[in-house]
Design a protein that fits this description.
Number of domains: 2
Bound molecules: 1-O-phosphono-alpha-D-glucopyranose
Radius of gyration: 19 Å
CATH topology of the largest domain: Spore Coat Polysaccharide Biosynthesis Protein SpsA, Chain A
Largest sheet: 9 strands, mixed
Shape: globular
Length: 281
């Protein structure tokens, strides 16, 4: 299976940090966000990844490319640990790029992947969302997709005041943590929301999605919405992801993700914990 990582958005919720750098390259603890996303795809058994980029996103390509000067420098000064880490980034997977020409929404970005996925089911991992669990979120979804032979998306319960930020599903529970989805609505008001189960940025999609993406009119925000096209699929399941999800497109979530990872780090975790205790006294 191939993976598609949309990373073309302008990152307006994170200005001015994203004025001259992609939000997907903002570091979370010690790595750029999109590296976590690529690592999740690889850990789920995927080695062919298409990243949908746009203007101002070149540093993403540079990050996953070889850097001969840097490698030469690290080798010559004996920094072998760094060298191994840097080389591993460019060897992780076969990564391809295509540009979304205009900002016409997530659905339009996914349409840019049509040729590359070439009629097969494919995974989508939003480039600004990090998931953390012992089983990678995308691997869970591949299992659900194989069991039900249908598209599958990750969902999570969200608090009422966050509902308007997400696509929200209506579904019937068919087994522990799995829902057969009957309908979904993109960024509903609290009154219109059919549940508190939100779409979280990980998807396995049947290729028919492209027909529906071509068909749907612009939705919320005047953009082509992936959620509007997914509503038209014959069959789609939601899996409640048991781990932690960070949408780093907002400053607060980005800060929380870096803090959580620092606290878990064997080298700096303890010092970070002490520091936090001191400053919240
Ligand atoms: C997108 C999707 C939405 C989903 C969200 C998850 O929205 O359109 O359905 O719930 O990602 O982060 P965006 O965050 O791009 O506005």
């Amino acid at each position: 299976m191939k993976a598609v990582i949309p990373a073309a958005g302008l990152g307006t919720r994170f200005l001015p940090a994203t004025k001259a750098q992609p939000k997907e390259m903002l570091p979370v603890f010690n790595k750029p966000t999109i590296q976590y996303v690529v690592e999740e795809a690889v850990a789920s058994g995927i080695d062919d990844i298409l990243i949908i980029t746009g203007k101002g996103k070149r540093s993403i390509e540079d990050h996953f490319d070889r850097s001969f000067e840097l490698e030469f420098f690290l080798k010559s000064c004996g920094k072998i640990d760094y060298l191994v880490e840097i080389e591993a980034i460019s060897d992780m997977a076969d990564i391809y790029y295509v540009r979304q020409k205009e900002q016409k929404g997530l659905g339009d970005a996914i349409l840019c992947a049509q040729k590359h996925v070439d009629g097969d089911p494919f995974a989508v991992l939003l480039g600004d969302t990090i998931t953390q669990h012992s089983t990678p979120c995308t691997k869970n979804l591949i299992d659900v997709y194989e069991k039900y032979n249908a598209s599958a998306i990750a969902i999570e319960k969200v608090p009422k005041d966050k509902i308007e930020r997400y696509g929200i599903i209506k579904g019937q529970k068919v087994e522990e943590s799995v829902y057969r989805i009957e309908d979904m609505v993109e960024k509903p008001s609290l009154n219109e929301a059919p549940s508190d189960l939100a779409i979280t940025g990980r998807y396995i999609l049947q290729p028919e999605i492209f027909d529906y993406l071509e068909e749907v009119p612009p939705g919320v925000g005047g953009e082509i919405q992936l959620t509007d096209a997914m509503r038209l699929l014959d069959s789609i399941y939601g899996h409640v992801f048991p781990g932690r999800i960070y949408d780093i497109g907002t400053t607060l979530e980005w800060l929380k993700s870096s803090l959580d990872m620092a606290l878990e780090d064997p080298e700096v975790g303890e010092e970070m914990r002490e520091y936090l205790k001191q400053i919240i006294k």
